[in-house]
Amino acid sequence: MNRPKIVILGAGYGGMITTVKLQKMLGRNEADITLVNKHNYHYQTTWLHENAAGTLHHDHTRIKISDVVDLNRVELVQDTVVSLQPDEKKVTLENGELTYDYLVVGLGFEAATFGIQGLLENAFTINNINSARLIRDHIEYNFARYNNEKEDRQDLLNIVIGGAGFTGIEFAGELGNRVPELCKEYDIPREKVRIITVEASPTALPGFDEELVEYAMNYLESQGVEFKLGTMLKQVNENSIIVEKDEQQEEIPSSNVIWAAGVRGNSIVEETGFETARGRVKVSEDLRAPGHDDIFIVGDCALIMDKENDRPYPPTAQIAIQEAEVTAHNLKTLVHGGSKLEAFEPELQGTVASLGEGQAIGVVFGGKKLFGWKASVMKKIIDNRYLLKLGGVGLLLKKGKFNIFTK
Ligand SMILES: Cc1cc2nc3c(=O)[nH]c(=O)nc-3n(C[C@H](O)[C@H](O)[C@H](O)COP(=O)(O)OP(=O)(O)OC[C@H]3O[C@@H](n4cnc5c(N)ncnc54)[C@H](O)[C@@H]3O)c2cc1C
């Protein structure tokens, strides 16, 4: 094979780290590298809840791809992937097609809606920069409308978060800071506004350490967040939701419903015909799609089982980054004519969930619990470390979070 063509789909954590590693690992004449992405920027998905609440501007979250990828070395194709044809080694884009010798699929996640009635039509999801900024503007517009309506439209001031998992909790934390600012801006008494988190499990943050969950709930409640636990979201209407607990249904007015309870892999991988579970492909140890030695799958599109508990690793940025590092290494081996590929072994460094300005909870260093400002500092260190890995000191100085003790 002369100068193999490597095509990387998606400039998320998985696609970007694969690209920047490969541009360092491979010589200029060893391979042609193409990165395909919808936009000319990469965004930090893990900060989108801040953009959606309006506590952080989205320009802070996004990074121009050309700021970290050498475009003399890597071809950037700004286009939308429509479908994959593995048998023909082809990718169909909205505006053309590409062929490849090796493909890396890093197309990320979609919201899993579990068939809840009206959810797709009437709820928002925190998926990307566009959806985050729409949520911010939608909530702000409804607050602006409130004092212009003849009737008391409580639905405009009720914000419902579907799911008290990681994303739902982090978003609630940001709203705890943002809502008082909006109330001041639009002359609305704070006590008129409700932030309601609906969670089907009997606890918030299912699977997290109990003491940390208690801390998170107490803190968020002190910020005015209400929890409806053990409660199913049954239906989302234009101006209300229907929830059910112990077979009793309740209708709650709300025109601000944000669904944050579950993700699945990008539907393109399922439509390709790969065997999937919740849209994620169960990849081999070296991160290739079963039966396709020329296709690597990274990030939220890939499913890897934790041998210790026989459950899939959760889809996280942390795992996407580590998978991308192994994928880049394995591609280098293949380009150099080798065949012995590295197996992926995740090194879990802990989990930290932010609760808003200067507050977080987390478990790090193999089990150490962190609360409050210490966890918040740790969260910023994790965020800054990623920037350093992606684009060195220059990117860290440009986009890093240095307001260590506050927002
Ligand atoms: C609000 C929020 C907070 C989170 N917090 C954390 C956290 O604290 N820690 C953690 O580890 N994880 C966190 N996660 C999860 C983490 O963000 C994901 O696991 C991670 O983003 C997955 O990376 P990825 O590379 O697979 O995809 P993504 O980062 O989603 O990137 C996918 C890329 O593909 C592009 N793309 C998608 N479809 C197409 C197409 N058809 N054509 C072209 N381009 C396309 C997108 O534009 C995007 O650039 C959080 C997620 C959310 C939503």
UniProtKB/TrEMBL annotation:
Answer yes or no on keyword Oxidoreductase.
Answer: yes
GO terms of molecular function: NAD(P)H dehydrogenase (quinone) activity
One Pfam entry name: Pyr_redox_2
Matches recorded under InterPro entries: FAD/NAD-bd_sf, FAD/NAD-binding_dom, NADH-Q_oxidoreductase
Q: Could you give a single Gene Ontology term from the biological process aspect? A: aerobic electron transport chain
- Give the UniProt keywords, A-Z: FAD, Flavoprotein, Oxidoreductase
- Which organism does this sequence originate in? Pontibacillus yanchengensis Y32
Q: What is this protein called?
A: NADH dehydrogenase
The cofactor(s) it depends on are: FAD
Enumerate the spans annotated as FAD/NAD(P)-binding domain.
5-324
User: Is Metal-binding a UniProt keyword of this protein?
Assistant: no
Classify the source by domain of life.
Bacteria
Q: Which family does it belong to?
A: Belongs to the NADH dehydrogenase family.
